[in-house]
# Entry
Amino acid sequence: MIIPFLIAGGDIQALLTAIVLAGAAFGVVWKWVLIPIHRAAKTIDRAAEASPTLLAISDQFKPNHGTSLRDVIDRIEAQQTRQDVRLDRQDEQLETIENKIDSFLRDRRPGGQRAADAE
# Structure
């Protein structure tokens, strides 16, 4: 391509200027058009690959009557609530027993007799 141009008596400076301008135009197109399009395409590909995974994760946070993570968390919370109720009941029973023991010990005299027997 260059040889016929030179043989035809073309201006080498005009040819070099055209090559430089074409290279600069290609560089601008490369930097501001092709690279962003390539990055966007890679991002879309990654999103498409991640989409099934994200959907599967999202499904775990929706109750489905037993097998989802949400259902497991709900069961654990319900068990914890039942345990809290049991512990509260046991605390009340223990406090009642402690009060009875304290009352019994207060009613006892040092000689082993009850205060009511001594009167």
Notes: DSSP finds four helices and no strands in the chain. Residues 64-109 form one domain.
